[in-house]
Amino acid sequence: MSGQRKLTPRNQPIQQRAMARRSQILTVTADLLEEVGQDDLTTILVAKRVGISVGTLYHYFPNKYAIMHALAEQWLGEMDIALQALESEAIEAYSVKKFVERSVERMLGVYRNQQGLLPLVQAMYGVPELKELDVMHDELIIASMARMFKRMDISSESHELRRLGRTYLELSHALILVVVNQNKPDGIKTLSELKHLSLALLERAKSAF
Questions:
Q1: N or C: which end of the chain has fewer CB within 10 A?
Q2: Are 162 and 139 within 8 A, CB to CB?
Q3: Do 124 and 137 contact (CB within 8 A), yes or no?
Q4: Residue 191: which pLDDT band, with cuts at 50, 70 and 90?
Q5: How far apart are alpha carbons 197 and 100 in whole angstroms?
C-alpha cells in the first residue's frame, strides 16, 4: 500500500471544477436557447457568455448539438425521477380525477423547471443528433403510464395500455408546452382544459374495460 500513489485527493478538485464548468455551460446554453433559439445558438456565443475560449468549450462539448443533447438527457432524467415518484404512490387507491391531478402536476413541474424548453423540444424533434432522445422521452412516459393505468384497472391488455399511454403523452406534452409559454391567466385555463380532457379519456377507457 505504501508504494501506491493516492490520486483521488489531488484529482478530486479538478474533477469538481470540470463538473461545475460543465454545469455552467448547460445553464448558459439553456438561457441562450430562451433568448435566441436553437438556430441562432452557436458555440462562440456560449463560450463568450460563459467567459471561456471556444477551444476550452470544445474540451467539454464538440458542438452545440452535443450541449443540447446533454441538456435533453438532463431533462429526461428529471422526468424519469418525477414518474418514478408518481409510481411509488398508492395510485390504486386514487380516483381517476386524483390521478390526473397528480400526474399532470408532476409533469408540469418538470417542464417548468427546464429553461429554454420549447426550442429544446423542437430540436429533439427536428435535429437528427437529438432524435433518439425524442424517442426515449416518448417511450419513458408511455411505459410508465401503461404500468400505472394497469394498476388502476383502466385496462389489462398490453396494446390498449400502451395506446392509452401514447394518447395521454401526446395530449399532455402538447398542452403543457402551451401552458409553460402562456401568460398566467391563460395558462391556468389551458391547464384546467388539459385535466378535463385527460379525465374524459381515462374515465371512458375505464368504463369500457
A1: N
A2: no
A3: yes
A4: very high
A5: 10
Grid coordinates of 172? 399532455
Domains of the chain from N-terminus onward = 65-208 (1.10.357.10)
How far apart are alpha carbons 83 and 70 in whole angstroms?
20
> Cell numbers 438532463 correspond to what residue?
74
Distances (CA, A) of 75 to 32, 86, 110, 130, 158: 16, 17, 8, 13, 27
Long-range pairs for 169-174 at CB < 8 Å and ≥24 separation?
Answer: 169/138, 169/141, 169/142, 169/145, 171/197, 171/198, 171/201, 172/103, 172/104, 172/107, 172/198, 173/141
Q: Which three cell numbers stand for residue 102?
A: 397528480
Q: Which residues contact 109 (CB under 8 A, 6 or more apart)?
A: 82
Q: How long is the chain?
A: 209
Q: What is the 3-state secondary structure (H, E, C) of the chain?
A: CCCCCCCHHHHHHHHHHHHHHHHHHHHHHHHHHHHHHHHHCCHHHHHHHHCCCHHHHHHHCCCHHHHHHHHHHHHHHHHHHHHHHHHCCCHHHCCHHHHHHHHHHHHHHHHHHCCCHHHHHHHHHHCHHHHHHHHHHHHHHHHHHHHHHHHCCCCCCHHHHHHHHHHHHHHHHHHHHHHHCCCHHHHHHHHHHHHHHHHHHHHHHHHHC
pTM of the model: 0.87
